[in-house]
Amino acid sequence: MKGSHTGWRVATVGSEVLFFLGGGFFLGRYLDHRLGTQPWLMVAGLLVGFVAGLWMAYRAASSR
Questions:
Q1: Main-chain phi, psi angles of 51, to 5 degrees
Q2: What is the predicted pLDDT for the residue at 4?
Q3: Which residue in 13, 15, 20, 34 has its CB near the most CB atoms, within 10 A?
Q4: Residue 49 in contact with residue 55, Cβ under 8 Å?
Q5: Is pLDDT of 62 > 90?
Q6: pLDDT digits (tens, 9 = 90+) for 41-50
Q7: CA of 5: how far to CAs of 2, 38, 45, in Å?
Q8: How many CA atoms lie within 13 A of 32 on its CB side?
Q9: How far apart, in whole angstroms, are the C-alpha atoms of residue 64 and residue 61?
Q10: Is the pLDDT of residue 6 over 80?
Q11: How many CA atoms are closer than 13 Å to the CA of 26, on its beta-carbon side?
């Protein structure tokens, strides 16, 4: 039973990281298009999304 919970936790953390990365990418891309700053806001969005995803993974791993 314990292995089953671990698998779901890994899947949840992975999907959260992808969600934040995708959100940062698309928000940055949209803002780049609106403001004409290609590719800087997309890169910044990816970095912020990556950090947010890692932060959520850290919180999930430390909340045993």
A1: -65, -45
A2: 62
A3: 20
A4: no
A5: no
A6: 999 999 999 9
A7: 5, 42, 31
A8: 16
A9: 7
A10: no
A11: 5
- Of residues 50, 47, 37, 42, the one with CA closest to residue 25: 42
| Encoded tokens for 57 | 């993974």
Return the structure tokens found at 31.
């803002």
Radius of gyration of the chain (CA): 15
pLDDT number for residue 61: 78
The three state secondary structure string of the chain is: CHHHHHHHHHHHHHHHHHHHHHHHHHHHHHHHHHHCCCCHHHHHHHHHHHHHHHHHHHHHHHCC
* One-letter amino acid of 31: L
Mean predicted confidence (pLDDT) in 9-27: 90
